[in-house]
Structures
1.
Amino acid sequence: MENKKKIESEINYKALIKKPIRLFGLVYIYFFVVALAIGLYYLNVMDTSSFNTVPGTSLDTLNIIREVNTKVGGIKPAMDLGLITNPTANLIASGKKQYEAVCASCHGNDGKGDGVAAVALNPKPRNFHDVQGWTNGRSFYDLYTTLNNGVPGTGMAAYEFLPPEERVAIIHYLRTFADYPTVTEGEVKDKLDATYKLSAGVVDPNNIPIQKAITLISDENQKSIDLAVSISQKIEADSGDNAILFKNNVQNIEKAVYVYLTKLNKIDYDSFAQTIVTDPVALGYRASVINLLDKDLQSIYLYLKQISG
Ligand code: HEC
């Protein structure tokens, strides 16, 4: 009897209003179902509900090339080592000019590592007033090494294209920012000159800009291809014995002619024969050339020479 009294067949709203906490027991299941439905819907449209309309800004590293200027090589003039231990006022003044033109954008006019370009750099350019934390070091030799090799993996490039005397001038100016270790004659002779041959002058290679080099190479290449095509047409039309011998032993006339024009025309007959029988197919020939008599190979060699001459 007691039990029956407790089970109510209908909701007793009056009691519910008095004790609203019971309401929760009745409705939480609906919240749960709705939340689950929203969750499932969201999962479903997650891929398409929002697109990033601002293109990413990461750099295309393939397009970053440290370009060089056209420069005729030669011997960088030898320098007077005395200027390293006893810099003249002139030298330091010219170093200041160079420093402000080349280095200040990163290292700052006062050498505090706060140039305009420093903002974007990590690690930051060296503050030349600091004594601690140098990668290569603060001795004259270390500074010269930094200019010669740069600091790989940082914004500090190599300035090996500057003539030694200009580098020395810049370093002397840089050393005016703070107290740097004194330069000794021993350091100059046994380390600096021994490593970098300042007193002998440095042989400097020719430079042409990378983009120009690529164009030149592909122009040159295109010229060889055009020539190979026109010679191949001549060979195709030629019904002489040597032409037939050649045609019977090549897989691809144009390729064989191109290889001849770009590689084999500079070598003597023995090297020619040896090269061709070593890897005929890669060079445009049939494997049958391996079995050719020496005099036939010689005929091919002379024929190519004559027709491309
Ligand atoms: C593109 C910015 C940039 C320019 C231009 C630049 N530097 Fe630097 N330099 C750096 C950065 C970045 C470092 C820090 C490298 C590191 O943390 O080791 C650095 C470090 C150095 C160091 C300290 C190397 C060490 O041992 O820690 C020296 C010396 C130096 N630069 C000299 C120069 C001189 C001289 C010039 C001009 C000829 C120059 N830099 C031009 C960015 C630059």
2.
Amino acid sequence: MGFDFVEWLQLGLRWIHIITGIAWIGASFYFIWLDMNLTPPKKDGPKDEAGVGGELWAIHGGGFYEVQKYRVAPPALPDHLHWFKYEAYFTWISGFALLSVLYYFGAEIYLIDRSVADISADTAILIGIGSLVGSWIIYDLLCKSPLIRHQGVFGIVLFLLLTLAAWGLSQVFSGRGAYIHVGAIIGTIMAANVLMIIMPGQRALVAAAERGEAPDPTPGLKAKQRSLHNNYFTLPVLFIMISNHYPGTFGHEYGWLVLAGLALVGILVRHFFNMKNQGKAKQGFVLLPIAFILFFVVAYLAAPNREVASGAPTVQFSEVQHIITERCASCHAANPSNEDFRPAPKGVKFDTADEILREVTRIRQQVVDTDAMPLGNLTEMTQEERDLIGIWIAQGANKN
Ligand code: HEC
């Protein structure tokens, strides 16, 4: 029986990861939206005197909801208080499990690219895990420094540091490996914010309320700060999670810059929505066209240069077929010789001339425009071979 345990394990983990991630990010969107849309109750009215700081009415799913947020804590705690933390924890746990299964157990295939850096699997894994822990420590220190009082500067510094991380990781890992680690760094910071700052802050609030004391508002404010950081992280992290499908991003020579550019698009969009939630849609509206233009500027700048010298001799199909058989068919064949890749990944096979000719566009995307394939350059394809295929495609990809 050809039961592929690892394949199904991955599928299961991915499924869990996306479900918990949606629940977490959905809650993040909802609560930031809620917080920014609260309006204070009537001054000196009964709600104001009961300590309510803001309220909101909503209709959803056929019913009316009235939400109130207390300035610090209600006079008495309810029997049931809902917490939101397992979404975060399970998103991180399933994400880390997936990272381990794919990129750590499969380090030789997915994480390492010997044409980028010739490192061992152990070294690569150590760098990967170290980057997660190290980034959290740096971020947390930054949050505890005076810089946190200047929101705008703090945001810029954090963005530059993460871009630096993306650059650094792209010097040691494959494009995919670098991208997924930036995503994992952000995800780790987000989950650690919940575990180390937001939850303890909330526990302190509850404990003080239970003792009937006036709680210290500082932990609550710190929790809110981290919650807002998490909110800005969401769109960039979601882009990273889908980037795997787009070799033009992670496979680009300056993939880390592409990542920074698109992350900025996400942050601008997020910022617009946060301004809109505060009733500043008009002032913030300009952010949307800026984000839109930036998206296409990145796309334009990242576009591959496909110029081929006009005098180049005609490349024969037989040469191309020879290269593809040698560099690709160990994985991409009806019966791949590489045992890790059965059946052929994504159903892409290069056994016959027709199969190659059918896939010209994708071959160009994966091999000429980017170095996304061969995976981890395991089959040691050379730049000359890529150029040759590029010229053949530019000359019309004929079966001459
Ligand atoms: C070591 C195994 C291996 C080798 C060698 C390899 N590939 Fe792949 N290829 C894969 C895997 C795994 C995937 C699926 C990647 C993913 O999940 O994103 C893939 C996916 C693809 C895809 C589909 C991409 C998509 O998402 O639409 C194309 C096209 C492709 N490879 C072309 C090539 C070409 C051309 C070569 C040779 C230059 C090559 N591959 C060499 C393993 C390999």
